[in-house]
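Bench log, entry 3. Co-assembly request; chain sequences pasted below exactly as received.
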Amino acid sequence: MPSENIYIYLLLAVFLFAAGCYGMIQRRSFIRMLISVELILNGAALNFMTFSRFTAPEPETGRIFTLFIMGLAATEAAIIVSASLSVYRKYFTVDPDDVKDLKL
Amino acid sequence: MNILNALSEILFVAFAIMTVLGACLAVRRVVMLMHTVLGLAVCMMGIAGLYFFLGSMFLSMMQVLIYIGALCVVLVFGIMISYTPKEINRMGITGKHMYLALTACILVCIPMGILIIQSDWHAVTTVPSGEIGPLGSMLLYQYCMAFELISVILLIGIVGSIILSRGGHVADDSVPVSVEDH
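Structure output for the full assembly:
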């Protein structure tokens, strides 16, 4: 029964985390970085859900953490989208490496 | 009954494949940024299915509503407003740190996978009840403070994103109407 196997869920979560890291380091535009962060957060949420289903005595705790992760991810996405909009309006670029006014 | 079980296992495998393929599409070196958002939506749909198999109908609905319904729409609007095709063409082809990213990703992925496979999780096989009632009462009693803080953070996020996307200094030449006019 693959759906009762904890290893499959955990390996999927690791894959999501690694894909998010890949997209995050590759770093080609703000929106892509935001999407990579969403993948990383979802890997963490899948881990919480898996452990709350298979090993935790109280299954509700992991679900509540997953709900919190969803709320934080939504807030963060709204802020980053509007920040990238204002960066585009000010610098006319979508490249995160071009925005370096605060660097020495 | 056996047919139903086999069907549900097939669905599980389909959701897992959706997750993997969606994540691959979301970080692939594509030219069109919209395909990335599509990949994210497919991946979130797969994760929603996995949540259903993990015993929480409510969270899988929330996943579909929040991620596919809200976040992907926000991303699509952000892309449509800010990115011109010229920028996308200039940015899309030249991924800068690809080998660095691949190395880091493999260095993260393989040790974690080995650790997971070698560990012995004392996994129980009892299926938890997918009721929403205990979830709601825990949110309002045990995790009440965190719940309220999340609400405050959501409010701050909304206000902050409105201020950021308006530019922050719009009131320079649009001075409000003075009281003498009335």
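The longest helix of chain A spans residues 59-91. The helical segments of chain A are 6-26, 30-54, 59-91.
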